[in-house]
């Protein structure tokens, strides 16, 4: 471990430290593990100055917890003409103006006999993720320059040395680039790994998942900080919401809508986040109170373009969207079929596109759900069996659609359809037209 004496702060003096870490003037900043600029100078004796694996100066408290990391100011703030700061110190808002709404021009409702999502508890367990790299101890020495480069392949999960916030930055960068990592949760896993490979295919560049400095610079150029502030509005708090989503389809059919169950669930989906991670970033916050300022992910505007061909890779559990020139436009983690209810093979086409679709359950066509033996009309909503989007395929009962459980995308199986997160399915829906081919590959 490369450590400096804790008395360094005392030697330099509080006034010097205040000037060095004044976020308005300094060339370097102290940033907390939550991504905020430290608005105070730790007192002498309360912290030890050390180095992390990336060779950066870090402040550690007496219990071994990370207090702050010293980073260059230019890697935290984007150029002034790229946006402006919000009221909270150190928080950057690159998207002051929302993009103009696009005309829908699609069916507001759809009645399908699609094969629905996997039942609760069905499928495979989540990917394992390494815990955050600890600060302190003999493994704190900076990495050597001759360390072997890590080759990223879809089959081998990356063992990242990044902190959780740095992994968040990587996920946000990939999301902004149109290669979705699925829900953003600050953890490495196969969805992130597959997105890295897709990005390298799309751009022809190499992205080192352990190079935090490069990732943060790319993030800055793509629109600014990964974590932003957001003020909960009266509309956010009002909903409408439902108390809970029942498992039985007959009970689902009795609801006025398959709506979100809470403001937190709605906000998590709005900002492409895992709901648990949203709550971790905002401990103790009551999301139902308008005017509350919270920390959220800044995914940026959705990818745009024209998609003329889609490839659904069953083995990778990933969907690739290509333009007329053959170049990759976007990529998404997906749940595609299962051994018992496999997805089709060969090539089909998109026949219909619908936002906010309703769902018709027909036990003679669908699988048997509970004791239901009658046709049921389940209302629209993000927690419906097909989420917020339905792209009907030319093979009857199959489609590309959203999901009420975004954290399970790419980690569980479906009942034959292609299942994406609601936001990824919506992004894809706005780039396709009826007639676009969908090729299933093994």
Rounded mean pLDDT is: 75
* Strand segment count: 19
From the 3D structure, determine the CATH topology of the domain at 309-441. Answer: L,D-transpeptidase catalytic domain-like
Q: Any idea what the CATH architecture of the domain at 309-441 is?
A: Beta Barrel
Return the structural class. Answer: alpha+beta
What characterizes the major β-sheet? 9 strands, mixed
Q: What is the approximate shape?
A: globular
Question: Termini distance?
Answer: 48 Å
Count of runs of 4 or more consecutive helical residues? 11
Strand order of the largest sheet: 11-10-9-19-13-16-17-18-12
Unreliable parts: 1-25, 75-151
CATH classification class of the domain at 309-441:
Mainly Beta
Strand content is 15-25%
Keywords: Cell shape, Cell wall biogenesis/degradation, Peptidoglycan synthesis, Transferase
Active site: 401 (proton donor/acceptor), 417 (nucleophile)
Pathway: Cell wall biogenesis; peptidoglycan biosynthesis
Protein name: L,D-TPase catalytic domain-containing protein
Short account of what is shown:
Helix content is 20%, strand content 19%. With 442 residues, it is an alpha+beta fold. Among the domains are: 8-76, no CATH class; 228-297, no CATH class; 309-441, Beta Barrel (L,D-transpeptidase catalytic domain-like), CATH 2.40.440.
């Amino acid at each position: 471990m490369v450590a400096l004496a804790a008395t360094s702060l005392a030697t330099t003096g509080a006034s010097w430290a205040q000037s060095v870490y004044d976020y308005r003037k300094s060339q370097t900043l102290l940033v907390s593990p939550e991504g905020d600029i430290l608005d105070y100078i730790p007192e002498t004796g309360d912290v030890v100055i050390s180095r992390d694996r990336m060779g950066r100066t870090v402040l550690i408290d007496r219990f071994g917890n990370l207090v702050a990391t010293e980073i260059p100011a230019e890697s935290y703030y984007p150029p002034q003409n790229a946006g402006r700061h919000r009221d909270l110190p150190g928080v950057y808002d690159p998207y002051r103006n929302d993009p103009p709404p696009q005309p829908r021009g699609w069916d507001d409702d759809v009645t399908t006999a699609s094969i629905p999502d996997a039942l609760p508890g069905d499928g495979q367990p989540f990917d394992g993720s390494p815990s955050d790299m600890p600060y302190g101890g003999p493994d704190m020495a900076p990495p050597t320059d001759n360390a072997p480069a890590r080759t990223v392949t879809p089959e081998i999960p990356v063992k990242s040395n990044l902190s959780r916030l740095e992994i968040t930055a990587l996920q946000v960068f990939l999301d902004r680039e149109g290669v979705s990592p699925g829900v953003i949760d600050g953890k490495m896993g196969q969805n992130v790994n597959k997105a890295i490979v897709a990005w390298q295919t799309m751009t022809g560049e190499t992205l080192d998942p352990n190079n935090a400095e490069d990732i943060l610079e790319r993030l800055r150029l793509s629109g600014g900080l990964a974590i932003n502030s957001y003020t909960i509005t009266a509309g956010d708090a009002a909903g409408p919401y439902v108390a809970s989503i029942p498992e039985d389809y007959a009970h689902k059919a009795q609801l006025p809508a398959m709506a979100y169950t809470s403001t937190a669930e709605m906000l998590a989906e709005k900002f492409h986040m895992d709901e648990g991670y949203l709550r971790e970033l905002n401990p103790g916050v009551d999301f139902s109170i308008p005017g509350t300022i919270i920390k959220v992910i800044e995914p940026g505007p959705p990818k745009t373009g024209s998609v003329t061909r889609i490839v659904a890779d069953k083995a990778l559990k990933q969907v690739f969207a290509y333009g007329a020139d053959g170049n990759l436009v976007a990529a998404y983690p997906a749940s595609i079929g299962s051994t018992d209810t496999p997805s089709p093979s060969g090539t089909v086409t998109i026949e219909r596109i619908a936002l906010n679709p309703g769902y018709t359950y027909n036990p003679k066509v669908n699988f048997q759900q509970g004791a239901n033996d009658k046709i049921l009309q389940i209302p629209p909503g993000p927690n419906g069996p097909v989420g917020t989007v339905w792209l009907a395929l030319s093979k009857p009962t199959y489609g590309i659609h959203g999901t009420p459980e975004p954290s399970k995308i790419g980690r569980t199986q479906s009942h034959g359809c292609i299942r994406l997160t609601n936001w990824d399915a919506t992004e894809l829906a706005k780039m396709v037209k009826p007639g676009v081919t969908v090729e299933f590959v093994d």
